[in-house]
Amino acid sequence: MKIRSIKLREAHKNGNGNGNGAGSFCSILWDLQAQHIVTSSSSDPSICIHDPLLLSSAPRILRNHRDGVTSLALSPNSTCLASGSVDHSVKLYKFPGGEFQTNITRFTLPIRVLGFNKSGSMLAAAGDDEGIKLINTIDGSIARVLKGHRGSVTGLGFDPKSEYLASLDSAGTVIVWELQSGRALHTLKGIAPDTGLDFSLMNIVCWSPDGEMLAVPGLKNDVVMYDRDTAEKLFSLRGDHVQRICFLSWSPNGKYMATSGLDRQVLIWDVDQRLDIDRQKFDDVICCMAWKPTGNALAVIDAMGKYGIWDSAVPSSMKSPTEGIPDLQSKNSNGLLFFDEEEEEEPNISGSLSDLGEDSHGESQPPSRKRLRKQSFSDVDEGTSDELSLLPKDASRKRPSHNHKEGIKKRKDVQMSTTTSVGSKLQEAFQPGCTPTQPGKRRFLCYNMLGSITTIEHDGYSHIEIDFHDTGRGPRVPAMTDYFGFTMAALNENGSVFANPCKGEKSMSTLMYRPFSSWANNSEWSMRFEDEEVKVVALGTAWVAAVTSLNFLRIFTEGGLQRNVLSLDGPVVTAVGFGDELAVVTHASPSLPSNDQMLEFRVFNIRHGTQPIRGRLPVTPGSYLTWFGFSEEGKICTFDSKGVLRVFTDQYGGSWLPLFSSTKVRKPEENHWVVGLNAIKLFCVVCKSPDTFPQVIPKPVLNLMDLSFPLASSDLGADNLENEFILHNLHLSQINKTIEEMMSTGQDTTSLDDEAFNMDASLDRCIFKLIASCCNGDKLVRATELVKLLSFEKSVKGAIELAKSLKLPNLAERFTTIQEERLLSESKAATAFPVTNLGSDTSDKSDFAIRKSIPPLESSYDSKPAIPSPSQKLPSPPFMKKVLSEAVAKAGKAKVKQGQAANLENIGEVKNDVQLKNAGEVKNVEVKKTGEENKLQTRPSNSFAKSSDVQLKNAGEVKNAEVKKTGEAKNPFAKSSNKQEKSSLFDSLKKKNVK
């Protein structure tokens, strides 16, 4: 037998290479079309994606783990790559692009092995921890944990028939698990070598492609085959291996097997003849191998991280290792299940595996793969329900193998009509706050910040109850009997609306409105729909809305008058009401091959009959919409399956801002079910996996989450400060916009001026902390940028003193230059637009009490530099011109109040072992009266202009000024404070949760 030489190339740098198995465990695999080879090493945190046609070209490298990668697994359709690591995490990537998707689970000890089932709906992960995790890749939940091994689990293998999972540990024990029940069917102790704590080479088990045999490395340098059902020993492959076998791999058609041993040999076996037909000798131990799925080749990688391709591993005179695969798949239902074809098993998702971005490359597939997709569609769904039945909440049903052909025949009858529609599906319509039907259990028809509507079926009809979170304020609503079988509802302070879909030909879809109180009897009303069914309902102030299957938006008055019928552009996804506004989400176009939903939102003002906002609705790539609603302040919000909360603002012409990401705060075994949010908190129910929604009993416990932007990790370690800085800026922008709107209508904005002034003070405190961090972190350019954003002159002076105390003279000089430029700009603005000449009544308003002050900073410096007076924000001249032009346009009719100057004491105590020079503490302040040359810049009552340079008299002649502390900053989408705040019925529950 001729021994050929195979050239190996270095992919990873490993071990010390003594030729005796020392090194690191490396992994190698092919993708479905044999267009890529993926390698990893347990001593290298990188994953390499190679081009098998150009092995000399540089690979694509993925660096997301902090430690060595111990295991790789590709989903059956090769669109999702999973990796396990010594750093205890399992990560998912899009393939072949390599875009990181998510950390799907974590362990407390290193991970050793991963494996997808044949459809990709389950991922098994195990290692040094006790227990094998079965992860549902649809939602990332842990479907089951299998416990029984006493050593580290190093081998996993899903049965191609979706009935069993085989596992092997370092002590040589094999356990065969029944997937539906989770129990151990067979435990075979000590049948494989005991590898101890040496993880450079690991035991492995592997099912034959037809699922009839399980191959396990034996104790006599052989491979032992065990029967699928009885676990009895069938036969063994024993040949020229002189040391134990450490890896084995079946050929795609199951006719051949490749084995590698500690003797540094790789043998090719004819399994039917039980003879080795070829072999190859290597310089180091081959620790992993993978057959090429589309040809006669074997990819290998050794313990030193060198990989290569053994072409013509099977002699050309023999049957090809890929010949006969379609027949095997048809016989054993081992067809490939692509994620977009599995979506019908998850009723509410329509693109159920879109979390993983499984079809992201469907649009660029070669024609051969598209043909394979059509051919295997009839075989595919057979195993889907079996695998999804791992979920404890689902009713499991085991399909006998003898019924398989009958199932295939039924699917072939509809294959012609369904083949053309195979692909990404549109997300189905859902009602916010509604939970799925559970036989025999009470469920939510609606759950929001006000209360909940629950229903339970009993004796052929349903019993509906309405409860308010604040029982002291909400009306008492008697329970009602539901004869229609309502499946969705909406709730507000005035009433509730219910709807149900069609149930057969005789049962029409029904819409019913039920007010809580009315001056007239029989104020309840209902509507029936003959050729359409209600998909979503919404409720607002004196109106009811329903969106139907014909894409009709039907608007009714509170009394039941059919006011409008509008045609929407696409199928509805969801809708929600708030006051006069109705927000509707529809599909803008068919979803992408990656299952990315293309959504559009529209906001209607029902009272005025207008549509003020319309645009695309963003969701995280590979995700779907799970919640849609209004905040307590009336801002539109969304939450997707990747756990990202977005809020719509007017900034940048109308943009969606990500204000929360659950991936940063939730635990791997938790899911967030959103209820609502206010200006500073997100209200949600934390559900334990695999549950994605709460049960009615016990009563859900609300959790309050802080809103925060998903910022990148700062090189200063000041992520919290940067987040606070952005939130304050957004809030200030919202206040200024509200002030402009109120000024345009002639309303008084005094209260908003105060709120804006306080927000500027809080923003200055945050900026000052960031400047201190930049100085300590030697980020001087960033510090200079921040100084330009300070609003008050005192803050700038404090920054100058800070730079001097830190012995940064160049920085202090730049800060001083910025201050001088600012004062010069303000002086020119004051000369060009003398504010004091605009008002018609200024004689009695020159004396005023100083009412505002900035509380001390929570920083770490000792001394408190006293800075005489606040000045305007840097970009004030353009804004001042705007205010003055409005005042001039009023021709002296508007009276301008004198501005309020704030004594901003103690911009902060910074204690980071740096003392600031004490510039003195100004305790008593009085504003000097002046005439036309008075330099005091007033802040008119109808504008947001900050106090500027204030001339102070001699300290002995001044009056005592009372200083008020500024209020806490609010969130960016909070409404203006001049309007009377509406007390929420949810306040009592919030207080309980806060306590």
Report on this model:
- This protein is α+β, with helices and mostly antiparallel strands and 995 residues long.
- It is built from 12 helices and 51 strands.
- The strands form 13 sheets. A 4-stranded antiparallel β-sheet has the order 1-28-27-26, with no helix packed on it. It has a 4-stranded antiparallel β-sheet with strand order 2-3-4-5, with no helix packed on it.
- Strand 19 and strand 20 (223-227) form a beta hairpin.
- The longest helix is centred in the last third of the chain and has 27 residues, at 750-776.
- The N and C termini lie far apart (79 Å).
- The model is unreliable at 16-21, 326-423 and 835-985 (pLDDT under 50).
Please report the number of helical segments. Answer: 12
> Whole-number radius of gyration?
35 Å
Provide the spatial order of strands within the biggest beta sheet. 1-28-27-26
Kindly state the percentage of residues in helix.
10-25%
- Quote the beta fraction: 25-35%
The helix/strand class is: alpha+beta
